[in-house]
Amino acid sequence: MTRKAIAPVVQADIVIKSRRRCALCVFLDGNDSERLGQIAHLNGDHSDNRFENLAWLCLEHHDKFDSKTSQTKNYTQIELRNYRDRLYQMYGESEYSKDDIVLVRDYIRQYSKTFTYIFHEYDELAFKIDNHVMDTLSEIRDFWHTNALRSFNFTIREIQDHIANNIAGILRIYEIEMYDLVGSWIKFDNHRFPQEVLRRKKKEARSFVDAIVGYYKQLEDIAVK
Length: 225
Description:
Elements (H helix, E strand, L loop, with lengths): L7 H11 L4 H7 L7 E5 L12 E5 H8 L10 H15 L6 H24 L6 E3 H13 L10 H19 L6 E4 L2 E4 L6 H29 L2
Antiparallel strand pairs: 1-2, 3-5, 4-5
Helix pairs in contact: 2-4, 5-8, 6-7, 7-8
């Protein structure tokens, strides 16, 4: 299969979350030291560079995992995924530093008006959205991984990333041929497209906003610690 380069931000997430520990070394050999290694593809597809398909392995275990020999039973995808997830859980930060909390407060302060707007509009977002809010959401989507407000604390960063992913979902609702710029609004074209399409889009908007509300509440809880 074609080998594609793993995006630098994904590589960074893997090594930070694993702390360059090999999950197989930790749970099979009892070795929790930092290891020289490589990023392995769990499903064997080297073009599938999704975060959930990747794991940091030492060189020896990476070779064994990728080996196709029929002489021995190789490590399975399920086995490695289990050990990787246990490693991430083990190294997940349970406490937040002062700097972590300050950053969360800055994040909330920066985007509070935008989130208040989408929470208030809810599924009406599918009918119309303020053009300035659209610009802010697009900025979050397009530049999130280099945003200075993206936390280095894994737990916080994961919450923020979930919010960014759901923002991307909201933006996918606005198919260009179905929406028009009317003044400062981007509005659904009722004349050319049926209400059934709008109802479907409202349902999608509700699901994305509901998810963001839950994650945003987690950040608010962290901000008051």
